[in-house]
Amino acid sequence: MTTLVAVRHGETTWNRKGRLQGWAPAPLTALGREQAGRLGAALSDGYDIDRVLSSDLRRTEETVEILLEHFDAPVAFESAWRERDIGVHQGLAVDQMSERFPEYDLGETGPDAAHRRPESGESLVDVRDRVLEGWETTLAECESRETILIATHGGPIRLLLGHVKDLDIVETIMDQSQGNCSITEFEFDHETGAARIVRENDTSHC
Fold first, then answer.
1. How does pLDDT run across 128-174, given as a tens digit for each residue?
2. Is 205 a catalytic residue?
3. Is 115 a catalytic residue?
4. What DSSP designation does 19 have?
5. Cα–Cα distance between 146 and 4 in angstroms, integer?
6. Residues of 95-116 as b/e, b for ≥16 C-beta within 10 angstroms?
């Protein structure tokens, strides 16, 4: 059995301002750094982490740097675990997105919105394909009894959960949430090739 622990980064300046981040190099806030410290302590207490896979965006890199003050493990930064590239919509206020661009709103147009790709960005389906490719590669290469930490973003974690729960992409995004520095744990059975969810969006340590 392999344990995979997916965590979201700490609060950023753009989280606080309610702006769409995409791939923007938004730094952690003071609160975000505190959240990461508490997450690191919780991970150190609860797991014997063998290695870390992380998004290579600034907010996850900063989070991982703080996590490694609490335990020692090798880190691989991979673009597979990045948040969605929202292209020209990067920096837009979250509450303005559905008003100005309803064609991208899953609540308004359903699955069609998931296939729409903003200029210079990715569709939700693109992101799902990228994240699940990283997930399947990780499962194919992991060892039994290994514990792997995946430091990533809210979108990719929801997509992993939706995949394991067999949800459609609208339910995956709209019916699930992930708090800053949340813990979502999976177990992968090498004999059956199946993953199961142990816990999700746990922020009790924060």
1. 999 999 999 999 999 999 999 999 999 999 999 999 999 999 999 99
2. no
3. no
4. B
5. 8
6. eeeeeebeebebeeeeeebbee
- HSE (side-chain half, CA atoms, 13 Å) at 203: 15
Scanning the structure block, which residue is given the tokens 């459609």? 168
Side chain identity, residue 3: T
Helix (H, G, I), strand (E, B) or coil at 152: strand
Question: Which residue out of 11, 83, 122, 200 is catalytically annotated?
Answer: 83
What distance in Å separates the CA atoms of residue 29 and residue 41, rounded to the nearest whole number?
19
Single-letter amino acid, residue 126: D
pLDDT at 98: 82
Structure tokens at 108: 């308004």
- Report the predicted TM-score, pTM, of the whole model to 2 decimal places: 0.97
Token pair 């069609």: residue: 112
Collapsing DSSP states into helix, strand and coil, what is residue 165?
Answer: helix
Categorise residue 149: left if φ over 0, alpha if ψ from -120 to 50, beta otherwise: beta
Report pLDDT digits (tens) over 79-98. Answer: 999 999 999 999 999 988 88
> Which tokens in the block code for residue 28?
């952690």
Q: Would you tell me how many other CB atoms lie within 10 Å of the CB of residue 86? A: 24
Question: 9, 89, 153, 185: which one is catalytic?
Answer: 9
